[in-house]
Design goal:
Layout (H helix, E strand, L loop, with lengths): L11 E4 L5 H12 L3 E6 L2 H13 L4 E5 L5 H14 L5 E4 L16 H19 L10 E6 L12 H8 L6 H17 L12 H23 L4 E7 L16 H12 L11 E3 L2 E3 L5
Parallel strand pairs: 1-2, 1-4, 2-3, 4-5, 5-6, 6-7
Antiparallel strand pairs: 7-8
């Protein structure tokens, strides 16, 4: 444990989509700080194989199966977490999918992408909110997001007006936006409605996630909850999703991601979008 740290070996972190890439690197870095980390993955064999070498190093890592897109899996995970560890202090929502190559933009799998990247993240977050301990150090939610979901990628004036009106933005309005996109995908008209041009289904999923982060942060602040929720865009990273292309490694991303997750309570913001190391409000870009 780092000298003067707010956390201890009793601190519990959950990282989703963590059997490889950025998620696995985040688990390793958090555990190296002495934090008990729950490594989650959809596949038991891959999840156990990812956790084993970390445990062999003496790191406090526990594996548990979790598919964020499956409500039954999310409910079972929340029950297990409550009964086994009593709760958590840090949630890192990393699980995400994309089916496009670097230079393609198919929306064939849009429903799966939105179900995992937005609906699944939201489902898990809401299920675990009651289990966040709300300690004096403040519980933390860090959503691994993307600058592809920033408002400067949106070309629809009506959509921009909706998302820029933060005081009146609600989860219902975000849900309506996502449903509208999926309906346009289904009827083949999505290209003419001003959605982001690059990796459109993935970008819309992150657009919705960024908006939900702001709405959730406002809701928690209104209730004087000791929970912060922020987004972190790691940038173009060498992972399976990018087929090994990128400007930085998963380990480099994890170093910064963990530093954001472990910020001192007096320096911890909420409702903030961190683009690499620069905090920016998503709505101002």
């Amino acid at each position: 444990m780092t000298s003067g740290a707010w956390w201890s070996k009793e601190t519990v972190a959950v990282v989703t989509g963590a059997n490889r890439g950025i998620g696995h690197a985040l688990v390793a870095r958090l555990a190296e700080h002495g934090i008990t980390v729950v490594l989650t993955a959809r596949d038991d064999e891959r999840g156990e194989a990812a956790a084993a070498p970390l445990r062999d190093r003496g790191l406090p890592v526990v594996y548990r199966r979790l598919d964020v897109a499956d409500p039954a899996s999310v409910a079972a995970f929340a029950d297990w977490l409550r009964g086994t560890l009593g709760g958590l202090d840090i949630l890192v929502n990393n699980a995400a999918v994309s089916f496009n190559a670097i230079d393609t933009n198919s929306v064939e799998h849009a429903e799966t992408v939105l179900r995992t990247n937005y609906y699944g993240t939201k489902l898990l977050t809401e299920a675990l909110l009651p289990l966040l301990r709300r300690s004096p150090a403040t519980s933390r939610i860090l959503n691994i997001s993307s600058q592809l979901g920033l408002l400067n990628k949106v070309r629809s004036p009506s959509l921009l007006r909706l998302l820029l009106d933060e005081e009146n933005l609600t989860e219902a309005k975000i849900e309506g936006m996502v449903s509208q996109f999926l309906a346009q995908v289904k009827d083949g008209t999505w290209e003419g409605h001003g959605w982001p041009k690059v990796w459109t289904d993935y970008s819309v999923s992150k657009l919705a996630l960024n908006a939900y982060t702001r709405v959730l942060a406002r809701r928690l602040q209104a209730g004087s909850e000791r929970v912060s929720v922020n987004c972190f865009c790691p940038g173009f990273t060498k992972t399976d999703m990018t087929k090994g292309w990128g400007k930085r490694t998963a380990d480099e991303v994890a170093d910064l991601g963990v530093s954001l997750a472990l910020l001192p309570p007096d320096k911890l913001p909420t409702g903030t979008f961190f683009k690499w190391s620069t905090p920016q409000l998503y709505s101002k870009l």
